[in-house]
Amino acid sequence: MNLTISGHHLEVTAAIREYVQNKLERVTRHFDQVIDIAVILTVDNLKEKEKRQKAEINLRMSGKTVYVESLSQDLYAAIDTLIDKLDRQVMKYKSKVQSHGHDAIKHIPDSYEPAASA
């Protein structure tokens, strides 16, 4: 699994990097077929102060790419919300993949004889 954490208008410190990695362990614990994760943390200069911190993630799995973003006043809160959304999406995909298992072909009993058409 490749993990890329980058920042726009923000320096990604070791504490932020470790926080994101610890939070992502929850997602990889639920679903281990993750190929690539790209996290982008952004600080925008918006007039709305409550939506300045933005966290987004692209998670590639076998068969699907999941994109999630979150806005908040605090970067750590944005990361928490992001991981919650991502976890729900991954669990939904996992249940969808597992539910597509088909039942085995039901065997026809030996005593069954097809009706002869006359």
UniProtKB/TrEMBL annotation:
UniProt xrefs under Pfam families: Ribosomal_S30AE (PF02482)
Keyword Endoplasmic reticulum: no
Gene Ontology CC: cytosolic small ribosomal subunit
Domain of life: Bacteria
One function term, GO molecular function aspect: ribosomal small subunit binding
Keywords: Ribonucleoprotein, Ribosomal protein, Translation regulation
One GO BP: negative regulation of translational elongation
InterPro entries to which the protein is assigned, alphabetical: HPF/YfiA_ribosome-assoc, RHF-like, RHF/RaiA
Record-linked CDD domains: RaiA
Record's keyword annotation contains Ribonucleoprotein: yes
Assembly and binders: Associates exclusively with 100S ribosomes, which are dimers of 70S ribosomes.
Family membership: Belongs to the HPF/YfiA ribosome-associated protein family. Short HPF subfamily.
PANTHER family: 30S RIBOSOMAL PROTEIN
Identification of the protein by name: Ribosome hibernation promoting factor
Natural source organism: Duganella sacchari
Species classification: Bacteria, Pseudomonadati, Pseudomonadota, Betaproteobacteria, Burkholderiales
